[in-house]
């Protein structure tokens, strides 16, 4: 929120505080100053000059040559302006000036005549009529006569103003105003705070009938009639302040309501009394399909979630958000009805969002305005009207409310405050700080009893008092040396799952895979491209966009997107992995939380094959003591002949294979892609520390090769399993080293060559003892899978 | 006989001087010491030698045999070494060439920094807890004191699946879950993706990472928070990191603080890197609101606790000077590979 420092000074005198100290004090106390705006910025080399001579330019009809006295001498300026005469006082930007509109002034030569600066128009100085009369004329800004030449222009324009842009936190909505910030400054710097002038003269007693039908949405509504108004332009000082805070001046009554909004944070509205049909204000929910044409010339269709201010016949204003076309004041307005009201912040916020309509008023209401502020806003507006003699104010302010909040007290213990802050603050200092904040506090023994001002809705219990003391005392005074809770010592640990996840990531990277991180949600297009069913997924009710609307159940679609992107970027031979969560609903639509699994997805594309991926996956998983099994299978997503289900202890946990060419094409990938995805839930739940350390056998292993012919579709895993089962005691391992097909063996047959690794016991095995072992394997292969010896 | 021996030794010496290969050495050995070798033949004359001379001649012959063998072997070893060296030189390869090179991969900078941070927090006594990314409104908002009318509970700010199930907006959903399971005192941290309904642009991604830690014990104070945080940040951001507290507001903590770090470019004087303020915001923190403790079954009169949390994406971004958030999540391998 922007505040004008000179306006703040109306209530608390900050002239003795250095600007840097002021901003730091505010920031440290929770009112972060995000920007300091110097309104004179860009005007530092612009001074008042007097034109002493104007003569034609020898080479250009549209230019003239002027001599100007700027206080430090005389200079020559070439200009194309025409609205000045000799003797006029005009702003002169000297060489080196860097004007607010970005123009830099250099000495130049215009059509052969030297020019040492530039006379300025109002626009070039970044000002309009509200800052200086006739600032908006086409041509130079003609200043008033008799100014002292050489005077800095910022002084003449009274632009030596500082605007602070302050981040007011959501719990301190009471500070969204000049006066709110003034109060804080007074507390932080211990400076006296001047009260608001809320007095006014009345000379009528006319009133209007007000009916509030929904006090939940409108806890308070005040209305005062002002008759015989003069609704012209507002006074210069008011226009100037509004302009400096980025509000465009309109007419007196609109400007007054805006002025009060800025000064005390109360959004107000001024009606032309004659437009209120039936002389009655009704605050009610809109009817469904009720329509209102607003001031910005848009028609809005309302419903019963929207609150309206209506007359006896029709709605006039979308409460707190925007007025209808007939709800304002006009040059010929005779009598005004001033409204100051309190609307429920969440309702205004939701209505404003739903209608796509926001205003200064709705923004303020959405942050929350205090119920007591209704009265302060009204009185302050009437005070200004009274001082400006802008109308006859009625002595009757109608005040409809559902009950006003009572003052609350909060008790807190001095020791608890110190303990919580880790600061030793004297009781008397606490009391002094709280009183400075307007929180009247007395001590009963070691208990502080604080009376909470109505606007401080953020203060509910002792910890809030603790915060007030802490932030004014200075939270940065807390010293790390006062840390006391050192008697608790514990070992910080990761769970087995967390350790295994970190380990798997590192191992996978060491095997050459680069880690990707994709979004947990995708779009229907991506899901469809991966031939998955959108309706088996959890959907977000209010997604950021279609592409972010479906919670993934697999990492594969995102992986394909990433591969496609990288190939288009010219990256070849990709080895990628992602380890992240997928979401498996227990039912759809969901009524309870879905299962969230950590999945590991590996992909290869380029000069690689299925076996490379499988081998890598096995090696990576063996790093955490996991041995996987593979069984041929078919999935829509995969090449029908190159796909397996991955098993762990006979439970399927994932798939591996070559991505089906149709899916590849859907993702605009023109080369083979191999992908594996496994659900890590049961994989990572055990720590790999169960191995015992056996000594190796004394005698070396013996190798014997064996070649058999089997049906082509017998999987290697079956052949190996059969071999090992044949003689578990002696066969350590069976490795297939060659597969050979030819017509001579038979079209449906293959020759499989394997090496049997045979264990010797205590004594070396003789050939006579080895042969039966090999035969046992052969017999088993013959019996189990109908093999023949090659 | 003596002359003959000397003649053979001279012949051997002369021949060896002319020899260039180890194979010739072997030939010479056969020629002199072989079955019919020149020296071997002299032994046959031994039976014709008189008994008095036998001993002398025998010694003479034997030492000649040894001498010849030594001369040949020495030359042979020398030549064999040279021949091996020559053979090895022919096997010379270009060691600057890379063939069949396979690179290792890299972790994403987010993972790298998280693992780093987890180690620091483990060292400080914090254990990791995980929570669901899709959670009940109760854990995400209610039990951490976010009031019903708070803007974040509106549809326009959070991503809902049903009326009371949403994508978590903060890792704080792990707080009530931890308090449900563990009795104080405890120190835990959690890390993961959180989701807000922001418009996506150069600075806003549809999800971001958060890391948060809590410590609940008897008499935990803001001084403990400052002590622990300054240690954590020194370990993570560098030993010269200076942390500052200023007042702030979060629904789950009271008092709340914003923790700033002194700008390490200008050392607090104000420069373009820190937009002239001399410091930058690191994280939000505070004393856990007593109402949060109460709602989760912990007596605030007996226990107090601190909590801190921060958006994590910006730290790797800051440490590695990554120009924008977009490149962090496009997953171009040329970007990721840098972090090997």
List the helices and strands and how they pair.
The complex is a heterodimer of chains A (790) and B (340).
Chain A (H helix, E strand, L loop, with lengths): L1 E3 H4 L10 H10 L3 E7 L7 E11 L7 E6 L4 E6 L9 E5 L14 E3 L2 E3 L2 E2 L33 H4 L5 E6 L10 H12 L19 E4 L7 E8 L8 H9 L7 H13 L3 E5 L7 E6 L5 E3 L5 E3 L5 E4 L4 E4 L3 E2 L12 E7 L2 H11 L4 H8 L5 H15 L4 E10 L6 E6 H8 L5 H10 L3 E5 L2 E6 L9 H12 L22 H15 L3 E2 L5 E2 L1 H6 L8 E2 L10 E2 L4 H13 L5 E11 L10 E11 L4 H13 L6 E4 L5 E11 L2 E9 L1 H6 L6 E7 L22 E10 L4 H11 L4 E10 L8 E10 L8 H19 L2 E2 L1
Parallel strand pairs in A: 11-14, 25-29
Antiparallel strand pairs in A: 1-10, 2-10, 3-4, 3-6, 4-5, 6-9, 7-8, 12-20, 12-21, 13-20, 14-17, 15-16, 17-18, 18-19, 22-24, 23-24, 26-28, 27-28, 29-30, 30-34, 31-32, 32-33, 33-34, 35-37, 35-38, 36-37
Helix pairs in contact in A: 5-6, 6-9, 7-8, 10-12, 18-19
Chain B lengths: L1 H17 L3 H12 L4 H7 L6 H40 L18 H15 L3 E2 L5 E3 H4 L19 E3 L2 E3 L6 H8 L4 E10 L11 E11 L4 H16 L5 E8 L2 E10 L16 E10 L1 H6 L8 E8 L2 H6 L5 H5 L3 H4 L4
Parallel strand pairs in B: 1-5
Antiparallel strand pairs in B: 2-4, 3-4, 5-6, 6-10, 7-8, 8-9, 9-10
Helix pairs in contact in B: 1-4, 2-4, 3-4
Provide key terms for this protein.
heterodimer, A: 790 residues, alpha+beta, Phenylalanyl-tRNA Synthetase, Chain B, domain 1, seven-stranded mixed sheet, five-stranded antiparallel sheet, B: alpha+beta, BirA Bifunctional Protein, domain 2, three-stranded antiparallel sheet, rod-shaped
């Amino acid at each position: 929120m922007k505040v004008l420092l000179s306006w703040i000074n109306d209530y608390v005198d900050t002239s003795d505080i250095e600007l840097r100290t002021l901003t730091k004090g505010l920031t440290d106390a929770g009112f972060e100053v995000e920007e300091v705006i110097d309104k004179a910025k860009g005007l530092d080399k612009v001074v008042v000059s007097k034109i002493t001579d104007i003569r034609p330019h020898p080479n250009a009809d549209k230019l003239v040559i002027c001599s100007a006295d700027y206080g430090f001498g005389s200079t020559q300026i070439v200009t194309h302006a025409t609205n000045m005469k000799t003797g006029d006082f005009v702003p002169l930007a000297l060489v080196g000036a860097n004007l607010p509109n970005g123009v830099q002034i250099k000495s130049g030569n215009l059509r052969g005549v030297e020019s040492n600066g530039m006379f300025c128009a109002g626009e070039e100085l970044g000002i309009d009529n509200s800052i200086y009369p006739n600032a908006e004329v086409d041509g130079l800004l003609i200043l008033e006569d008799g100014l002292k030449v050489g005077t800095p222009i910022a002084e003449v324009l009274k632009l030596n103003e500082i605007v602070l842009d302050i981040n007011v936190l959501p719990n301190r909505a009471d500070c969204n105003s000049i006066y709110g910030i003034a109060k804080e400054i007074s507390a932080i710097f211990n400076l006296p705070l001047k009260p608001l002038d809320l007095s006014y003269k009345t000379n009528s007693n006319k009133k209007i009938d007000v009916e509030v039908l929904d006090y939940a949405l409108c806890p308070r509504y005040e209305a005062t009639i002002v008759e015989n108004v003069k609704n012209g332009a507002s006074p210069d000082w008011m226009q100037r302040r509004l302009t400096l805070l980025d509000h465009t001046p309109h007419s007196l009554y609109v400007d007054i309501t805006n002025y009060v909004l800025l000064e005390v944070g109360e959004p107000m509205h001024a009606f032309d009394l004659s437009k209120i049909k039936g002389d009655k204000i009704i605050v009610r929910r809109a009817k469904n399909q009720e329509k209102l044409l607003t001031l910005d010339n848009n028609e809005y269709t309302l419903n019963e979630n929207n609150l309206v201010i209506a007359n006896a016949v029709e709605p006039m204003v979308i409460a707190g958000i925007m007025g209808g076309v007939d709800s304002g004041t006009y040059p010929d307005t005779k009598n005004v009805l001033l409204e100051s009201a309190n609307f429920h912040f969440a309702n205004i916020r939701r209505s404003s969002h739903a209608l796509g309509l926001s205003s200064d008023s709705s923004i303020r209401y959405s942050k929350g305005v205090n119920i007591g502020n209704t009265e302060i806003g009204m009185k302050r507006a009437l005070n200004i009207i009274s001082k400006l003699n802008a109308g006859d104010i009625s002595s009757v302010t109608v005040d409809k409310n559902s009950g006003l909040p009572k003052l609350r007290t909060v008790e807190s213990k001095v020791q608890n405050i110190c303990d919580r802050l880790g600061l030793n603050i004297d009781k008397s200092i606490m009391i002094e700080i709280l009183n400075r904040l307007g929180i009247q506090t007395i001590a009963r023994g070691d208990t502080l009893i604080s009376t909470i001002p109505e606007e401080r809705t953020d203060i509910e219990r002792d910890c809030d008092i603790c915060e007030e003391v802490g932030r004014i005392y200075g939270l940065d005074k807390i010293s790390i040396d006062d840390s006391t809770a050192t008697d608790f010592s514990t070992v910080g640990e990761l769970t087995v799952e967390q350790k295994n996840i970190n380990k798997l990531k590192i191992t996978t990277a060491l095997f050459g895979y680069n880690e990707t991180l994709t979004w947990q949600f995708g779009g229907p297009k991506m899901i469809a491209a991966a031939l998955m069913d959108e309706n088996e997924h959890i959907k977000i009710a209010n997604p950021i966009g279609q592409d972010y609307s479906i919670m993934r159940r697999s990492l594969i679609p995102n992986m394909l997107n990433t591969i496609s992107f990288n190939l288009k970027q010219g990256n070849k031979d990709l080895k990628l992995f992602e380890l992240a969560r997928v979401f498996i609903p227990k039912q759809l639509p969901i009524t309870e939380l879905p299962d969230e699994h950590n999945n590991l997805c590996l992909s290869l594309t380029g000069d690689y094959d299925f076996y490379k991926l499988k081998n890598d996956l096995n090696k990576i998983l063996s790093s955490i003591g996991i041995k996987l099994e593979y069984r041929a299978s078919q999935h829509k997503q995969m090449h029908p002949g190159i796909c397996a289900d991955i098993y762990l202890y006979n439970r399927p946990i994932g798939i591996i294979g070559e991505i089906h060419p149709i899916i590849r094409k859907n993702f605009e990938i023109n080369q083979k892609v191999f992908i594996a995805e496994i659900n890590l839930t049961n994989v990572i739940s055990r720590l790999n520390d169960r191995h015992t350390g056996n000594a190796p056998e004394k005698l070396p292993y013996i190798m014997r090769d064996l070649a058999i012919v089997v049906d082509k579709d017998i999987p290697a895993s079956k052949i190996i399993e059969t071999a090992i089962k044949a003689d578990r005691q002696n066969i350590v391992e069976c490795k297939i080293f060659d597969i050979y097909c030819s017509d001579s063996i038979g079209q449906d047959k293959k020759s499989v060559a394997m090496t049997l690794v045979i264990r010797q016991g205590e004594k070396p095995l003789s050939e006579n003892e080895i042969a039966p072992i090999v035969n046992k394997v052969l017999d088993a292969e013959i019996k189990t899978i109908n093999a023949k010896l090659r | 006989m003596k002359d003959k021996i000397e003649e053979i030794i001279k012949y051997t010496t002369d021949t060896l001087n002319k020899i260039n290969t180890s194979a010739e050495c072997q030939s010479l050995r056969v020629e002199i010491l072989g079955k019919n070798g020149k020296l071997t033949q002299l032994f046959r004359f031994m039976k014709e030698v008189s008994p008095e001379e036998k001993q002398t001649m025998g010694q003479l012959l034997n030492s000649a045999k040894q001498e010849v063998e030594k001369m040949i072997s020495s030359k042979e070893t020398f030549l064999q070494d040279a021949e091996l060296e020559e053979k090895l030189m022919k096997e010379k390869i270009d060691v600057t060439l890379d063939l069949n090179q396979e690179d290792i991969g890299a972790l994403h900078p987010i993972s790298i920094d998280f693992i780093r941070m987890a180690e620091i927090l483990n060292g400080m006594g914090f254990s990791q807890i995980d929570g669901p990314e899709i959670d009940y409104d109760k854990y995400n908002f209610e039990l951490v004191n976010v009031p019903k009318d708070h803007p974040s509970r509106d549809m326009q700010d959070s991503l809902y699946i049903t009326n009371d199930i949403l994508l978590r907006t903060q890792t704080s959903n792990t707080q009530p879950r931890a308090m449900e399971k563990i009795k104080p005192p405890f120190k835990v941290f959690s890390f993961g993706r959180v989701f807000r309904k922001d418009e996506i642009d150069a600075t806003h991604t549809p999800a971001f990472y958060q890391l948060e830690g809590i410590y609940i014990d008897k008499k935990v104070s803001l001084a403990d928070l400052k002590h622990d945080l300054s240690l954590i940040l020194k370990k993570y951001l560098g030993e010269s990191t200076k942390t500052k507290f200023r007042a702030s507001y979060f629904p789950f903590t009271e008092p709340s603080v914003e923790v700033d770090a002194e700008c390490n470019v200008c050392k607090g004087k104000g420069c373009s890197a820190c937009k002239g303020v001399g410091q930058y915001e690191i994280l939000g923190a505070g004393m856990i609101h007593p109402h949060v403790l109460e709602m989760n079954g912990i007596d605030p009169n007996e226990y107090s606790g601190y909590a801190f949390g921060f958006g994590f994406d910006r730290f790797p971004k800051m440490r590695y000077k990554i120009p924008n958030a977009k490149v962090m999540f496009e997953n171009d391998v040329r970007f990721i590979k840098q972090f090997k």
